[in-house]
Every structure is written in C-alpha cells, then in structure tokens.
From TrEMBL:
Residues 1-20 are annotated as: Disordered. This is Mitochondrial import inner membrane translocase subunit. Its main location: mitochondrion. It is a peripheral membrane protein. Keywords: Chaperone, Disulfide bond, Membrane, Mitochondrion, Mitochondrion inner membrane, Protein transport, Translocation, Transport. It comes from the Eukaryota.
C-alpha cells in the first residue's frame, strides 16, 4: 500500500535506465549468438571443403582426422585473433584514458 503514495516520477528514471540496460544486454547476447553461429558456419564450410573430397554415407578415418585437425586449428586461430583484438582494444582504452585533454 505504501507504493501507492510514492512519487511516480522518482522511479521512472531508474525504471527507464534498467529497461535500457536490459535491452542493451539482450542485444549484446543476440550479437554474441549470431557471431558464434557465423563462426560455426565458417568452420563447417571451410573444413568440409578441405577434408571431404567425396561425400558419402560416412566419413573415412582420414576425413575424420582431417576434420578434427581443421576444426582445432580454426578454433585456435580464432582464439589467438580474439585475444589479440581484446588486448589491443584494452591498450587503446588505457592510452586514451591516460591522455590528458587539451
């Protein structure tokens, strides 16, 4: 009952900020999912082209080995590129924060 007497304008800005943050979080999650899906599609397409020369009912042992190595290499490369990119962004942020404004 005490909520009835609260000023509706005082909580609207916090509600608005919370909604905005929730929407931004949802968009980030959707982008992350889309990026993960794109990564999987690229891996599958490239590794399939490289390893499966004669599609059939099953994979030969050499095709299985090739696919495993290709997927591992693709993920390793993706992880290296991601770490390097994140480090670069963090470095640029710290440099921009430490640079005084003129």
């Amino acid at each position: 009952m005490s909520d009835f007497f609260k000023n509706p304008l005082s909580s609207s800005s916090t509600d608005s900020a919370a909604r905005k943050q929730a929407i931004m979080d949802q968009v980030r999650n959707e982008l992350a999912q889309a990026n993960a899906q794109q990564l999987m599609n690229n891996m599958n397409e490239r590794c399939f082209k490289a390893c499966v020369t004669k599609p059939g009912d099953s994979l030969s042992s050499s095709e299985q080995t090739c696919l495993t190595r290709c997927l591992d290499r693709f993920m390793d490369t993706f992880n290296i590129v991601s770490k390097t990119y994140i480090s670069r962004i963090a470095k640029e942020r710290s440099e921009s924060e430490s640079t005084p404004f003129n």
